Write the structure tokens for this entry.
Amino acid sequence: MKPLRFTLNLLAISVISSALLSSAATAETAYISNEKDDTLSIIDLDTLEVTETIDVGERPRGIIFSHDRTKLYICASDSDTVQVMDLSDHSIIAQLPSGEDPEQFALHPDDRRLYIANEDDALVTVVDVQTQEVLAQIDVGVEPEGMAISPDGKWALSTSETTNMVHWIDTETNQLVDNTLVDQRPRHVEFNKEGSIVWASSEIGGTVSIIDVASRKIQHKLSFKIRGIHPDKIQPVGIKLTDDGKYAFVALGPANHIALVDAKTYEVLDYLLVGRRVWHMDFNADQSRLLTTNGISGDISVIDIEDMKVIKSIKVGRYPWGVRIKP
Amino acid sequence: MTLRDGLICFNGLLQRELLRFVQQRSRFFSALVRPLLWLVVFASGFRAALGIAIIEPYQTYITYEVYIVPGLCAMIILFNGMQSSLSMVYDREMGSMRVLLVSPLPRPFLLMAKLMSTSLISLLQVYGFLLIAWFWGVEAPLWGYLTALPAFLLVAMMLSAIGLFISARIKQLENFAGVMNFVIFPMFFLSSALYPLWKMREASEWLYWICAWNPFSHGVELIRFALYQQGNSEALIIVALVTVVASVLAVRGFQPQQGMGKR
């Protein structure tokens, strides 16, 4: 009788533990940088609860995964470094020489070159993440912030908040090639999947410029209007585009709304209410969910893409800034 | 009284109310105009004014319109309940209630059956309002419309019973204006229908306590939670308790040996 019971117990334990393991393996995880708390919050996307909070460098803002998603790069702005976190045990394994005050960055398709905007120095620093060496520093406009790299890896784009330009950097030569003037205080740039179009948000201008990559000229300009909200409060920052080319999401900062835009006709379809001062967003792997970071209310909102509804807001640390979701 | 007698009686009362409802279509529309004005005019103006905080049962940030809808449903029920209760007292002297009360069925049953049938009619108006609110962009979860049904019914019973009790006891309130001023308005405004209780507390502590003790607040919260497929046991217990107590008192008020018959 006893051995049988033992076997049954063993069986039960193995079934439960394998169930736990498999759920842990399939659950998607969101990483959120909390600017004021110097921490990362980790959210389980199945339960929509914060599972862990990890201390990182000072004033973490932009975060990005390595292509194999084993590492997370963190712009620790006040520590003047980019930290590299090993995602298997959440330990910091390296500090990259990022130049001063790194805010946003983008990883080249070669998985090695990291293009970092140094807000205080009017520079873009290029770092090789393997050798941890600075490859180049490129002069751009005053207060660079937004960074994006074209899907084919040819262009690195930076936006400078005071010069009001999108700067085009040729990644082969790391030279500034061209500038596109946009509305006041450009904060963020985002390529479409094909790399033919770039969306650039202007925070104070209240617009999003849609730029043709081939001609590097603005082909359309979006503006926003929300019932009951003063136009001054509509300050576009983060932009996310769905892979199917149907929708664009624009975070409207202190307007506390996300604009849902038809990415083909550039028509604003809807405004979704989220927390206060929404800046950045990320999709999960199958793009069924979009997470937004709401700085002042200190939470993230979860949008269901199929229903186009905000389903939940979850408290994280103080001033959440960046968000990335790991499948 | 057998079950069959009871059902026949209830059926008769309900049909009469339905007939009245169908024939007086203007009454239906006028009952809808009031909450719709609140929703479209009042709530639109206050969209951004309500401070942002996530409160239960909501999972995320909501516009003021979304917040106010359960309160407006309760308002429809409140007006209907008070109106029909008042007419019952009035009718007792000279109208259909007089005929009804000569029935051999027990008087408490007659009164409760009457309250129930007017409550069911209120539900039609509430769902009519919710449908328009849906087109206005205030959508609750689909199943919530079903789970809210028992909450609507219980709150309707509570408010009708309170109305019946008050109108039978207080002679001065016999006209509707009196009820409006001294019962409906204080009940509606001093509740969580228009502002969450934490917001009231910011204004003043005693205002908060009045609102927290107001049974109408608990009715509104019961509806709010049920509409979002959640239970609120505190609100449920209070609403159920008040319904029972008010019903007992109301029935007693209708006994010939006491209450207004004597006056």
